[in-house]
Structures are given as C-alpha cells and as structure tokens.
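Why does residue order matter? Because the sequence determines the fold. Keep that principle in mind as you read this record.
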Amino acid sequence: MPVQDSQRHAFQMSSQLYNTVAVPAFSYAADVWYTSIDLAPSGRKQLGSLSITRKLSSIQRKVAKVITGSLATTAGDTLEAHSNLLPIDLLFNKILYRNATRITSLPNTHPLHPLARKAAKHFVKKHRSPLYYLFFTTKVNPSSIETINATQRHPSYSPPLSTTTLSDKQEALAAAINRHQTQVSVYSDGSGYENGVVTIFIPSHTLFL
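Structure:
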C-alpha cells in the first residue's frame, strides 16, 4: 500500500510538473507562431500548424504514459483522457482564446488596442499579421469584451483602507467583534459578479450578524 501511494504521488507530481513548467515553455508566444487547426473551405484537408501539433502530440503521449503508468501500446487519446490532459490542438485553442480575450481587454492607451480591433473587423487577403490569424481563428469580438482601464499609482502608494479576508464565518464573526472600533465598517463579498459587489455599511454602534 505505501508503494502504491508513493507511485500515485509521483504520477500527480509529474502531471503538475508538465502543466506548470513544460506547457508554458513550449506554448510561449503561441499567438504569434501557432495557427489553430481547421478544415479547409473544401472540407477535404486540414489547415493550420499541423506539423508542430503532431510533434507535440507525440511528446505529450510519452508524458501521459509516465503519468498513468500504462502500457506503451495504449492509445494516445485514452492516455490523455486518463491523465487529465487536453489534446494539443485543444490546448492551443484554449491558449489562443485566452490571449485574444486578454488583448481585447487592453485599454485604448495601449498600442495593441487599435490594431486588435482592426484585425478583428475583417480578415485581409494579403500581408496578414499574427493578430489577423488570432482573431480569425478564435472569433473573439472586441466589442463584447470589457475593457480594463489602467490605473497609475506612485511606487510608494499605500491604500488608505485596510482589508481582511478570513477563512470561515466563525472567524469572521470573532474578527468583526474584536475589530469593530471604527466609525464605519464595510463588509463585501468581493466577487464582482455581473459588475456588482454586495456591500454592507455598519455604524460603529451597531453590529448585524
């Protein structure tokens, strides 16, 4: 039993090492050099970064075999499913979509802001930059993405308010009773769901539970 536990721990560590070290390394700047795989308009062949996808799929199959400890003859898609790894083409689709949404959320003061909107508007016939391929394959619409405005702060800036995040309700209640010495206390869920945050303002002489 201890041997099985150690093997299981080694497999989990291998998966974590691959996802946190190897994947960011070989997918670095993928929005510049990788094109998503898709069918041609004729529907007879695939277009995109086929060669690099095949090579990386072969490498990932070896990693999945180490993670699962399976036989060498096991199918690659079965290994990826049991090792909880995305196929290479889907992995890069996820990365490209994430990069596209990140670029479209840049403020209008960023140099990529007008270029991204121009590239997403139409797919030019000649002299296509990586931005054109990125938005053509991901179908991300910049108008549907919220823009995150940049805020400038001095290096020595410190917020005037102190914030505290506690682990459970009982700890939060004890901290509220002990620290409720200010004129006004503000309690918030901090989720920001649908651009809204639930807040409660409590005067110093009242404590709602």
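The chain has two domains: 2-144, 169-203.
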